[in-house]
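Translate sequence into structure tokens.
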Amino acid sequence: MVPLLLVLVLFGAGFALKALWWIAVIVLVVWLLGFVLRSADTGGRKGRWYRW
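Result follows.
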């Protein structure tokens, strides 16, 4: 019983870590695209692409 629970926990943790890696890669790509494609404000300077 204990080995089965250990296998299930490790499988769940591995799946969660893989999913978190993919989310981190997607967020990094979106951040880089926003950094590169940000628009210039009225003064001609490049403004922030996020709102906060």
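Note: Residues 9 and 21 are 18 Å apart (CA to CA).
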